[in-house]
Design brief:
Blueprint (H helix, E strand, L loop, with lengths): L6 H13 L15 H10 L8 E6 L4 H8 L4 E6 L8 H8 L8 E2 L5 H13 L3 H27 L8
Parallel strand pairs: 1-2, 2-3
Helix pairs in contact: 1-5, 2-3, 5-6
Length: about 160
């Protein structure tokens, strides 16, 4: 993340990865305030064994794109609505509108949990344990929706679909 103020937004990704037993690191790398740290982090990521990078940033949000420009490790960008943000649109567009050749997967504004899920999905392509946990996660989501449908019916709401 670009700043410690981003932690509340980035924490759901960390919690999701932790719940799946996926090791991760959480650190601050500012594209603008620590450019040498950014360069070192991105260029050494693959050799350090990092397989996916989730990069959250607000405002001008250069962190995900700069990391992606320096590594072949997949980068998932989390646009963050910061205190100096234009309702988050500056962050969204800064991460989303990467030039050809420097792709960054982009999730919704402040949606770090989705970034964690996407990272697990990428890792699950080659890790059967993670894949199975994702299957269970999706079954649980479906079950949760079915329970909510049942509650609506019990509360007397008409449902002609099923």
């Amino acid at each position: 993340m670009g700043s410690d103020s981003d932690l509340p937004v980035m924490q759901p990704a960390a919690e999701f990865l932790k719940s799946f037993g996926i090791p991760f690191e959480l650190t601050i790398v500012s594209a603008h305030r620590t450019p040498q740290r950014l360069l070192s982090y991105a260029t050494k990521a693959r050799q350090r064994g990092i397989k996916v990078i989730i990069a959250g940033a607000g405002g001008a949000a250069h962190l995900p794109g700069m990391i992606a420009s320096l590594t072949t490790v997949p980068v998932i960008g989390v646009p963050i609505k910061s205190s100096n943000s234009l309702d988050g649109w500056d962050s969204i567009l800064s991460i989303l509108q990467m030039p050809n050749g420097v792709p960054v997967a982009t999730v919704a504004l402040n949606a770090s949990k989705n970034a964690g899920i996407l990272a697990a999905t990428i890792l699950g392509v080659h890790d059967e344990k993670i894949h199975e946990k994702l299957v269970g996660f999706k079954i649980t989501m479906e079950s949760d929706v079915q329970e909510k449908i049942s509650k609506l019916k019990k509360d007397g709401w008409q449902n002609t679909f099923d």
